[in-house]
Write a structure and sequence with these properties.
Strand content: 25-35%
Oligomer: single chain
Radius of gyration: 38 Å
Largest sheet: 5 strands, antiparallel
Number of domains: 3
Shape: elongated
Length: 345
């Protein structure tokens, strides 16, 4: 700096660079602070230390006396112009000169373009679970980085229905990750996949065309579980079973923090609630009540075929028991809390 007190032009110490891909480029700058301070305070080209505390404090004041802005700084293309503005706080130092200068963007790499068609070919989708709560399974068969390790998601995953046009979920992170890997999306990019193959469960029990067959099978299985004994000698056990309610639930109840399962289990549930009295019958025909309780028995996985009929061989048993400290009303209320509703034929 000359003896007449001219200010040091900060633009002479600023380096502007561009990185990323064409159309999505970014601008950055680097200020040679050591060289700037060395020149302003006559300390030489490279400043490694200060001669005294006063000089160190002055250097700190100078370095805190300016701001640098680049506009625009993102989504740049080769050939664009950016403007760098350096503003110096004159109350903090009289030794620096700011200003404005334009720079032409250059050196950005040509991007690869990811098309809808390519994404639909390289993402293999299967849909699992039940209709209305379908879950997408995505197998990524891309063989180039970063596409080969990216996690893809489907819009409305966990709520999918057969016939839906499931869209690839696009968010800011998705596109930013692609840009960092040298890719941009083609205009109108939106891979879409038809949802199919989800198991059908009835909305209401009465929608099951062979509901009477299912209920009859339920009663047969219950009778097998609580079968009267018929011993020739000694006492026998006899059950008095009364059906109190028939209840149905289409979907498993899901907690707010719980994700939807891709399994069909515990969906399409039909249960009967039964009052049971257990008797001991002695050889002299004396009948003594020894227990009473409530039985909950039925089936899950009532999956419908194209005729809205359930295959009885594919049902899964549901079985529970509540002792006599539970009233019938409380048992019904418990299952209503789990999403079951009384069946009205």
């Amino acid at each position: 700096m000359s003896a007449c007190g001219s200010k040091e032009d900060m633009m002479e110490y600023l380096d502007v660079s561009f990185y990323g891909i064409d159309s999505k480029g970014n601008a950055s700058y680097y200020l040679e602070e050591n060289r700037l301070i060395g020149s302003v305070l006559n300390l030489g080209e490279e400043v490694h230390d200060f001669p005294d505390e006063e000089t160190r404090k002055e250097a700190e004041e100078i370095l805190g006396a300016y701001t640098i802005e680049i506009e625009p700084q993102e989504n740049l293309s080769n050939g664009d112009e950016v403007q760098v503005t350096i503003v110096v706080d004159k109350d903090k130092t009289k030794k620096l000169k700011g200003g404005e200068k334009k720079f032409t963007v250059e050196g950005l790499e040509a991007p690869e373009i990811l098309t809808t068609e390519e994404a639909e070919k390289k993402l293999v989708l299967n849909f699992n679970g039940v209709n209305g709560r379908g879950v997408a399974q995505i197998d990524n068969v891309f063989d180039v980085s970063p596409l080969d390790y990216m996690d893809f998601e489907i819009e409305n995953d966990g709520e999918l229905k057969n016939g839906d046009q499931a869209k690839l979920l696009l968010d800011e992170d998705f596109e930013a990750t692609l840009n960092e890997g040298g890719y941009i999306l083609e205009e109108g990019f939106q891979p879409t996949f038809e949802v199919k193959g989800l198991a059908e469960v009835a909305e209401k029990a009465t929608d099951v065309k062979n509901l009477d067959d299912v209920e009859r099978f339920l009663l047969e299985e219950l009778s097998n579980q609580y079968r009267d004994t018929d011993y020739s000698f000694g006492s026998n056990t006899v059950y008095d079973i009364k059906q109190e309610e028939l209840m149905y639930r289409q979907f498993k109840k899901i907690a707010e923090d719980e994700s939807v399962s891709s399994s069909v289990d515990d969906n399409g549930n039909l249960i009967g609630i039964f009052s049971v009295k257990k008797y001991r019958v002695s050889s002299d025909e004396d009948k003594e009540e020894v227990d009473q309780f409530t039985v909950i028995f039925g089936f899950s996985r009532i999956i419908l075929d194209e005729d809205n009929k359930a295959n009885l061989s594919e049902l899964s048993k549901i079985s529970d028991r509540k002792e006599d400290n539970y009233s019938l009303e409380s048992v019904i209320q418990l299952y209503e809390g789990e999403g079951y509703e009384k069946v009205k034929k």
